[in-house]
Protein PNS1
Amino acid sequence: MRWAERKIIRIFSLSIFSLVPLSLSLLHSVFVLRKRKEINANINIIQLSFDVLANNPEIISISVLLLGSYIFFCAIWLIFFSRVFLVKHSDRYGNDVAVESPAQQLTTFFVFVFFWTTAVFNGVHRATVAGVVSQWYFHR
């Protein structure tokens, strides 16, 4: 094939492949036009939530404080949880065989404590945000 023929094939294939982004953009435009009422409703909800945040900026600091506390808890929990698996017993030849039964029970306990504490952090955050929103709603 000559150089000119290859150039024509390249130009034609690029023209064909350029139809893919065009069709995707047309589909996206049709989607946005059909869903504009839902999009406007979501925009109004977001504006309302930012209005609540503008009137109560301390909720952001409380959220950051709870997040930092949760990260600290997870770090401590991981340290303790990783130490549980160091409890093993050896057979008469000195080989580590398996995790002992108290260690299995301790593992179950640590997993339960992790899920319970995660639920407590989630509940405290939800209650705090609910209190701020109710204060804003009833006393604006």
Observations:
- The beta strands are 88-90, 96-99.
- The chain has two domains: 1-55, 57-139.
